[in-house]
Specification:
7-stranded mixed sheet, Quinone Oxidoreductase, Chain A, domain 1, 6-stranded parallel sheet, 15 strands, alpha/beta
């Protein structure tokens, strides 16, 4: 079967590897036929050659792990040892070993849920990041009537803006150095700020500080500090971005004096929130179609990741399809 792996910084290679078989399945795992995958911002450090902490990421010049680093997948169940999934089911969710860029994928069934067959697989794959955002927003205080600011207006940051507005936020501010003006209103952003987060926070009036600030950039240390500085007294900071460093220095004096709450965390209850994401999207026709802006064929995965690394104003979600 076909598989892709990163063999050097910014370079995918197609290889042929041994087929997965139903006999390889552990309890509660399923075997999927690849239909589509989403490119996530958390995949990009691996594409650039950075060494991660996942098992199997041990190559000399890059990870060199088959199927890596894709984790957002939609597929057809071929075989199952999970009670909730049967052969023929169309499902979306997590490739639990971050090896979803291959023809047949073995993954834990708890991280999958069915999707409406009226959706294309490339549209359906958007339910995975939507589920992550919905779960994160469950960890926040009630957003009704609050000012929510989101640092980073990529594919995750725009979803946060949309969900915050749907949850009743009075005002949503989106901050990004890329010009997102053409997309901002569609995703519920009231104030689109084209600036780096350090410049934005340095010009922020006390009355413009937000009740909730979401860091949706990740992969750098400074933006968490900017989020803390941009939060109004008594407010909440949610760090959603993926941390590449083990330790992040924060201003404890600001945290203390302003009575702030700092939260973070990975997505749990994955099947539940995937089902919630499907319901949320079904109640808002057009969301997933608008979210998906670029689709590439499997043999164009190199081009898909190269586009993901460029600051393109009209790019939101990139998908790779069989």
């Amino acid at each position: 079967m076909w598989s892709y792996r990163i063999i050097a910084p910014y370079l995918f290679e197609r290889t042929d590897i041994e087929d997965k078989t139903p006999q390889c399945l552990a309890d509660r795992h399923v075997l999927l036929r690849f239909l589509a995958a989403g490119v996530c911002g958390s995949d990009l450090p691996a594409f650039r050659g950075a060494k991660g902490r996942l098992p199997g990421d041990d190559g000399r010049s890059a990870a060199e792990k088959d199927g890596f680093p894709i984790h957002e997948v939609a597929g057809e169940v071929i075989a199952s040892r999970h009670p909730d999934h049967q052969p023929g089911d169309l499902v979306v969710g997590w490739a639990s070993a971050f090896d979803g860029m291959m023809e047949l994928v073995v993954t834990h069934g708890d991280g999958l849920a069915p999707y409406d067959p009226a959706l294309t697989p490339t549209q359906a794959v958007g339910l995975q990041p939507l589920a992550c955002v919905l779960y994160a927003c469950e960890q926040l205080p009630d957003l009704t009537g609050r000012h929510v600011a989101i640092i980073g207006q990529g594919s995750i940051g725009l979803l946060f803006a949309y969900v915050a507005k749907a949850a009743g936020a009075r005002r949503v501010t989106g901050v990004d150095p890329v010009d997102r003006a053409a997309l901002s209103k569609t995703f519920g952003v009231d104030d689109a700020v084209r600036a780096t987060s350090d410049r934005w926070v340095s010009q922020l009036a006390p009355t413009d500080r937000a009740d909730v600030v979401i860091e949706a950039v990740g992969h750098q240390v400074a933006t968490l500090g900017h989020a803390i500085d941009a939060t109004a007294p008594g407010g909440t900071v949610f760090y959603f971005g993926v941390a590449d460093d083990e330790a992040y220095p924060i201003n404890m004096r600001v945290m203390l004096r302003n009575n702030l709450t700092l939260k973070s965390g990975v997505t749990l209850d994955r099947r539940r929130v995937l089902e919630q994401a499907a319901k949320f999207a079904a109640e808002r026709p057009g969301l997933l179609e608008t979210y998906l802006t670029h689709t590439f064929a499997v043999d164009e995965v190199q081009a898909a990741f190269e586009l993901a690394c460029r600051p393109v104003p009209d790019r939101v979600k990139i998908a790779v399809a069989r």
